[in-house]
């Protein structure tokens, strides 16, 4: 009876075969000068992929420098050369164009570009980046309700990310302050000189409904800050 583990395979005691050492070929790393893509000679190539990279790098540099119109034009040139199967550059270019349109005040075009990005989304990471881009767009244009909807979706996708819960809580407070300010302004500016009994009842019902909505938003903000902690 053999004891378990006491036997060895014969191959363990064989001598190792002599291995022939293969010399490695010499590798020369390509060196590029700073902002090499800004030179006119960078586009003197027949490779469309290299031209796309040049345009993309130029657009990224213009976006970083705050020259949004120039960056938008360069990104558009890069998108014209983009092939259907090169989704990586396409996503980066569309996101850069959306950020440029946001800074230039072109809200509709920026949202249209995010819709194009949504069609190319293939995983959760893409969807998260699109939602964060929409949050930035809605924040720039002061769309509180749309921004809150995107933050809620982010919290659903990443329930353990404290920053999304914190931003959503802050968003609820901003919405609450906005509703209070608009409600007080509307009451002061639209208050008639003489009130009838029916008008007083309608206004009282509207104030009660606004108070209930305010309590609900306040409860949401508290919940978000608790999740953040």
TrEMBL record:
This is Uncharacterized protein. Keywords: TPR repeat. Pfam families: DUF5588. It comes from the Eukaryota. InterPro entries: DUF5588, TPR-like_helical_dom_sf, TPR_rpt. The lineage of its organism: Eukaryota, Metazoa, Chordata, Craniata, Vertebrata. It comes from Dissostichus mawsoni (Antarctic cod). TPR repeats lie at residues 52-85.
